Inverse folding.
């Protein structure tokens, strides 16, 4: 009975549509245990099967459930990876939008040029002060 419940639950949760029923299949999942007689739902008075079905070994069904669990785990990891990639994409998109909104004097090329001009002006002022001080010192003698 537990297997039937797990099967029904796993199919319901997975959202897999149920296949169409055939006319001679069994109406429900019926558990069979070693040493017990065949359930009345499966055989008639002569001992013949009254419906068609498939007897799935318990270990095989457990393996199918494990595969399903692994698939769900992989799906969750995939969803997490997609979420991380979307976050990174949005971050890069925001960076591009911010780069488009930069004023011309804030661009790296303008900053380098401004720095060079500032350095040239500073060196010129310092050189002028040194030269003036030198000339004043020499002219006084």
């Amino acid at each position: 009975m537990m297997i039937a419940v797990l099967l029904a639950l796993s199919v319901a949760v997975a959202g897999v549509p149920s296949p169409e029923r055939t006319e001679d299949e069994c109406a429900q999942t019926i558990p069979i245990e070693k040493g017990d007689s065949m359930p009345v739902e499966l055989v008639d008075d002569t001992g013949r099967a009254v419906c068609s079905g498939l007897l799935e070994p318990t270990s095989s069904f457990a393996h199918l459930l494990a595969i399903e669990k692994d698939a769900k785990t992989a799906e969750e990891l995939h969803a997490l990876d997609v979420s991380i990639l979307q976050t990174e994409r949005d971050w890069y998109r925001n960076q591009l939008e911010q780069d488009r909104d930069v004023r011309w004097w804030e661009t790296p090329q303008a900053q380098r040029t401004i720095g060079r001009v500032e350095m040239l002006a500073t060196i010129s002022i310092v050189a002028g002060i040194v030269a003036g001080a030198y000339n004043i010192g020499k002219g006084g003698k």
